[in-house]
Amino acid sequence: MRRFSTLEEHSTLTNLNVSVAVKLTIARFLNSSLVLLFVNDDPNRWFKNGNLAYDATVLIALLAVQAPLKTILWPWGLIKKVKVCIAKNQGEDCKLTQREANVLMEGTTTDVASSISEFVNMIMTCVFYSPILP
Known about the structure:
Blueprint: H1 2-7, H2 13-39, H3 52-72, H4 75-90, H5 98-105, H6 112-129
Helix pairs in contact: 2-3, 2-6, 3-6
């Protein structure tokens, strides 16, 4: 998605991120929400056990916990936290240069387009399936 948006030659980084977010949102909505509708193609069975209503409920629950879990369990973030603890525990014996310490303490890079598209996909999925969910 990013390659397609880069080819559009946006004038600002914000315009690029908006373009990527829109494309990712459409792709995620098609891939998650509309696939359930295509798989459960018989409207007479939407409310039977284990069909569309159940699948939509599970999908919304998964979308709700996916982003926080991804942030908490991100392996590179955990590794970085361990490195920071090790460096802090060394105290005066720490051999890090100021530049290495700055790099170590910098926060994670946030992909704005991906974060926005995850959030908007969750909202669109909730709105899309709200008529059939209790």
